[in-house]
Write a structure and sequence with these properties.
This protein is of the alpha+beta class and 279 residues long. It is 46% helix and 11% strand. A hairpin with a 2-residue loop joins β5 and β6. The two termini are 30 Å apart. The mean pLDDT is 95. It binds a DNA duplex (13 and 12 nucleotides) through α6, α8, α11 and α12.
Length: 279
DNA sequence: AAACAGGCCTAAA
DNA sequence: TTTAGGCCTGTT
């Protein structure tokens, strides 16, 4: 992969195994949308960014000079997915191979721990459209202005969320999740749940700690670990993956064959189960 | 209009 | 330890 820097954007060539569309529409991330101009835009790490993909092997990143690497990491473009895909497909075969072909452009984004935890708390018993709206309102309510765009907001800090109190979250219309959001914000901001320190923990211990938050069960903890802590071995089972496992794998899957890539495989299965009928 | 949506909590066996 | 019902809100 090569990087060339121009005045207001960087150009990556020699990109493989990436579809911006699949990556931003596979349910892992709630803050990016198709941009009116072109491509996908959103806020991450407090900064506005826009990505374009004029051809499969070419990606444009509209960002300040010097930020390219940040976004390359965000997109996991520093990881060789072709090898991972081969491993997953050959390790399981059958429907898994189909799923890898179908969603082969998905990359697991490297999102921030707090944002991932909070977002997946909100996601429970909820649909993507509404999840996005709730998160958008949360950011507008107490997030700081994002760098690089007017009217865009960073994901708020735990302290900022906590300061609102549970009642202060009412405008989000998050329903029963408001209490969960507040508990998470309180635990993180008062240090009982030290997300920074948890980066050093093994994945099972990490998930166990995350589950001390009210409203965080196995699925949400696994999602936070996978998307917020880069734990690609975490294997969240939601209704779609459940459906896929029931339909194609006799109800369960021996993920030992997937090594540390179970979470990536999960994402292919999820995307395939959820979207194949649209194709 | 009733069910359901990318779960989890609580109460009851 | 496992299982059923309920939960906010919005959409179909």
């Amino acid at each position: 992969m090569e990087i060339k820097r121009y005045k207001d954007h960087a150009v990556l060539t020699g990109v493989s195994d990436l579809s911006l569309g699949q990556t931003f529409d596979c349910g892992q991330c709630f803050r990016f949308d198709p941009d009116p101009a072109e491509g996908f835009s959103g806020v991450a790490q407090g900064r506005f960014v826009r990505f374009e993909q004029p051809s499969p092997d070419k990606v444009l990143i509209y960002c300040p000079e010097g930020d390219e690497e940040r976004w390359i990491e965000f997109l996991s473009l520093d990881v060789d997915y072709s090898e991972i895909k081969r491993l997953i497909a050959s390790g399981i075969g059958g429907v898994m191979s189909e799923a890898v072909l179908f969603g082969g452009g998905i990359r697991i984004l490297r999102q921030e721990p707090w944002e991932a935890l909070c977002s997946f708390i909100i996601s429970q018993n909820n649909n993507i459209g509404r999840i996005k709206k709730i998160i958008s309102r949360l950011c507008a309510l107490c997030g700081e202005a994002a760098a690089g765009a007017e009217g865009r907001y960073a994901f708020p800090s735990p302290a900022a969320v906590c300061a609102l109190g549970e009642e202060g979250l009412a405008p989000l219309k998050a329903g029963f999740r408001a209490g969960y959001i507040h508990d998470a914000a309180r635990r993180v901001s008062d240090g009982r749940l030290d997300l920074e320190a948890l980066k050093k923990e093994e994945t099972p211990a990490l998930m166990e700690r995350l589950r001390t938050v009210k409203g965080v069960g196995p699925k949400v903890a696994a999602c936070a670990a996978l998307f917020g802590f880069g734990r690609t071995e975490a294997f969240p089972v939601d209704v779609w993956v459940r459906r896929s496992l029931d339909r194609h794998f006799g109800g369960s899957l021996d993920i030992s064959a997937l090594g540390s890539y179970a979470g990536i495989a999960q994402q292919y299965l999820f995307y395939y189960e959820r979207n194949q009928k649209l194709a």
